[in-house]
Amino acid sequence: MSLDIRTRRFLSCLTLFCFNGIVFNARTAAHFQSLRSLGFPALLGSQPEAPLTEGSDGALYGTTYGAANKYAGTVFRMNKDGSGYHVLYKLSLTGGEGQRPFAGVIEAKDGVLYGTTFAGGASGRGTVFKLNKDGSGYAILHGFQGSPEDGAGCFAGLLEGSNGVLYGTTIADGSYGGGTVFSLNRDGSHFQILRHFRGGDADGAVPRGGLVEGLDGALYGTTSRGGISNAGAVFKLNKDGSGYQLLHSFAADGNDGKTPWATLLRGSNGVLYGNTTEGGTTNGTVFKLNQDGSAYAVLHTFRGPPDDGVYPIGALVEGNDGALYGTTATGGANSDGTIFRLNHDGTGYTNLHYFDSREKDGAFPRAGLIQAGDHLLYGTTQEGGASRMGTAFRFNTQRNDYSVLHDFNFSGTDGFYPVGLEVSTNRSVLYGTTQDGGSYRDGTVFKLNADGSEYTVLHSFSFPQGRVPFGILPTADGLYGTTYQGGTNDLGTIFKLDPDGRNFTVLRYFGEFPGEGAHPLAGLLSGGDGRLYGTTRDNGPEGGSGTVFRLDPSGTRYEVLHNFGSIDGDGQHPFAALIGGTDGALYGTTFDGGDTGYGAAFKLNKDGTFYSLLQNFSTISGEGQNPFRLFEASDGMLYGTTFSGGANGSGAVFRLSKDGSGYTVLYSFAGGPYSANPSAALCEGDDGALYGTTRHGGAENVGSIFRVNKDGSGFEVLHSFSATGDGGHEPWTGLVRGPDGAFYGTTYYGGELGLGTVFKLWPPQTPEMISLRLTNSTIAVSVAGAVHSQYQILRSTDLTNWLVLTSFTMPSEGIYSCQDTAPPRQATFYRAAWAP
Fold first, then answer.
1. pLDDT above 90: percentage of residues in the chain
2. pLDDT of amino acid 543
């Protein structure tokens, strides 16, 4: 037994089910519903800055400090061949959780993952956390409180000592503001500050690296400041905090390094090895020293591009061949960083790999390497890769073989920032585009059902195919659209693909010929004559004022129908798609230009003849400015919105005859709760009213959905978007009518991950089934709805054939009840329908 929601054109309702005397009660939620939040949560994560960890199960574990707008980093798992990437936990910006995990996680002897965050926690100063390897059991073990009793800001990860206790460092606060060394048990108990760094000649300060345990059981680490020259130091202390010694103070000049950031490596020979981010000459060093501070030596001084790296931040690792391996964050042949090798004595220095972000390689490896059980090296890069948001990579020292295992992506390869939505020709599926995201961060085409199910990314754009798509046009033979940039000249493209995403084809690369148009900012129009029509913002590589063009669907016979700015007072820079009037002509707008520079409405024939300006928008008091797409309503009039202007400067709704006469501002937006800045076309509802969206205004000034009659009366805000909820905010595009008569649209921001949403809005007249009551073989049906609207109550036993029980006008109370005195004996469904 369940509730069943069914809809059809002119009829939208909640169906209630009555069976064997059991009554199901429900009242519909608000008429607004978020259907889809863009982004794949299990696959997101970006900009890793931490080394990987090999788990006891053979998998790799790591962190990313970038995720999505509503999240503050992730913990992830992946297999060593790059497969099976999965986000185990998303750190949140709310609820006192940790944020920005710059360090990796470790697996302790109990098989649990432990890590640190730079920020977050109850005091916002970072945390120590734990997490099971299946993603369960997340818990904050300690939230740092800051000065004077506690540290703040963990930049490095944890060490599990031979005694099973966890040890770490903070870069700030403590009694003297120079950071701390701390310890705690794996259950979070017995947290202690072992060292408050003072800085100055006799002490270090600001430890960015973590700790390593020496053969003598003591803890060793580095500080990036302090020491004799305030250039950083190497220190030692016992696990109980006693026996603190400054083993080496780096020099501020000369050949010595300075400013070490990395955790030390204890080599198999018992010697300590490390990096400095600066010094030597200017580009950093590799150094060694004994555990008693003796025998300090600089093993390598980085020379910088093109032959050598710069800025070694990550820790060194000792390979199974006995050599030392590491990375530099920048430098090398492409200035994107390097992987290097050298012997324990500093000989045999070799650059093994130059990162190259131009080839979809990673860039800026800020973390060190690990050597896994398969004797291969693994690491991460902060940037680069196919999505430009970082990579995980593998390096085989035996074959000098490098490969990218995973491309991190802000949205988990989903598109984000949606800018278009249309309904398929059979009115069963929604198609849309996103400006950003996808596998290559160049935008996507997606589809989903009207109930939000079966969401699919049909195509991820890459630069050669075009990037930043702005519209999609479903037709009987496929999907057509435009991209604002990309292609062979980075001036945009026209593309086609099948409804299932196959057979993607670029039909036109803009910029091949002077004056042909460039940078289309809107989708296409099917002219009903076998041609596609569209606009471009510019004329070509040198700019210009834009064009109107037409194209055969095969990609041949491209023609420019009109060059904007070619006549006095002409409009310039069309931002919106064309519409086809019922008279067979084309209508459109330009965002600026015209007599006073605030845009124009125009008309022209499909062969480019008889171009005429219908309206020049101006600074006249109360008139709209900067118009978007027109819409022809059932009364044959043109309606549209302006982004600015109107009586209050916040935009307007206007009406215009197709001959250019009768321009009237119907409604001026007032900002605030009354909405502001519409940036999309209007849509006509079944009640004959106009529906639209505003980018700003509403209760939280992040957009709204509104309704207004064609004479300008009856304006009301139907929905105010929220910047904090999951319903999305800032709808940049307008509404489209779905197969069920409801309105569908997108928001550019917001949703679960902050990457935009697809939403649905039922008309205000949509009825709400309140209850069914069975009494003595009579069923009482109660319905709520809009006062004075017309409704029907229907009954069915098979959800296919429906009998109208009654038709009625909703009374002033907004609730109506009727009696079904002869209900069927089998399972019965009831529904209410709006009957405009």
1. 83
2. 84
What distances in angstroms separate CA 60 from CA 139, 305, 422, 610, 778, one per listed residue?
21, 32, 42, 66, 64
Q: How many CB atoms lie within 10 A of CB 239?
A: 18
pTM recorded for the entire structure: 0.88
Specify the amino acid at residue 154.
Answer: C
Is the distance from CB of 747 to CB of 409 less than 8 angstroms?
Answer: no
Supply 152's token pair.
């703040």
| Percent of the chain clearing pLDDT 70 (strictly above) | 96
Amino acid identity at 38: L
Q: What's the pLDDT at 739?
A: 80
DSSP helix/strand/coil, 677: coil
Distance CA 609, CA 58 (A): 70
pLDDT of 6 reads 27
Asked if 407 and 386 touch (Cβ cutoff 8 Å), the reply is yes
| Strand-pair category, 377-381 with 391-396 | antiparallel
In DSSP terms, 612 is beta-bridged to: 603
β-pair type (113-117, 127-131) = antiparallel
**Which pLDDT value is given to residue 16?**
54
Contact 705, 731 (CB under 8 A): yes
Look up residue 237 and give its amino acid: L
Show the tokens assigned to 147: 């000065």
pLDDT for position 23:
38
pLDDT for res 17:
54
Distance CA 409, CA 439 (A): 8
Tokens coding 779: 């069923």
Q: Could you count the other beta carbons within 10 Å of the beta carbon of residue 334?
A: 19
CA distance 68 to 64: 11
3-state secondary structure of 359: helix
Query: What φ, ψ does residue 443 adopt, rounded to 5°?
Result: 105, 170
Residue 333: exposed, middle, or buried by beta-carbon count in 10 A (0-12, 13-18, 19+)?
Answer: middle
pLDDT score at 315: 97
Whether 339 and 325 have beta carbons less than 8 Å apart is answered as yes
- The tokens for 830 are 């009831």
Structure tokens at 582: 């019922």
Tokens matching residue 376:
């291969």
Q: Classify residue 315 by its DSSP letter.
A: P
- The closest of 332, 397, 341, 334 to 360, measured between CA atoms, is 334
Round to whole Å and give the CA distance between 571 and 593: 4
Within 10 angstroms of residue 829's Cβ, the number of other Cβ atoms is 19
Contact in structure between 72 and 20 (CB atoms under 8 Å):
no
Q: Choose among 306, 299, 305: nearest CA to 279.
A: 299
- The amino acid at residue 733 is T
Give the C-alpha separation, 790 to 788, whole Å.
Answer: 7
Q: Indicate the helix (H) or strand (E) that contains 324.
A: strand 324-328
What is the structure's pLDDT at 620?
86
- Least Cα distance to 592 among 632, 562, 560, 619 occurs for 619
What is the rounded CA–CA span in Å between residue 833 and residue 836?
9
Element (DSSP H or E) covering residue 128: strand 127-131
CA separation for the pair 372, 379 (Å, rounded):
11
Report the SS3 class of residue 692: strand
DSSP 144-192: ---TTTSEE---S--EE-TTS-EEEEESEESTTSB-EEEEE-TTS-S-E
How open is the CA angle 433-438-443, to the nearest 5 degrees?
40
Cα–Cα dist 97/119, whole Å: 9
DSSP 8-state secondary structure symbol assigned to residue 69:
T
How many CB atoms are located within 10 Å of the residue 818 CB? 15
- What does the angle CA 675 – CA 678 – CA 680 come to, to the nearest 5 degrees? 145
| Integer Cα distance of 738 and 11 in angstroms | 12
Q: Which residues of the chain have pLDDT under 70?
A: 1-30
Q: Please, are residues 593 and 572 in contact by the beta-carbon 8 Å criterion?
A: yes
For residues 151 and 174, the answer to whether their CB atoms sit within 8 Å is yes
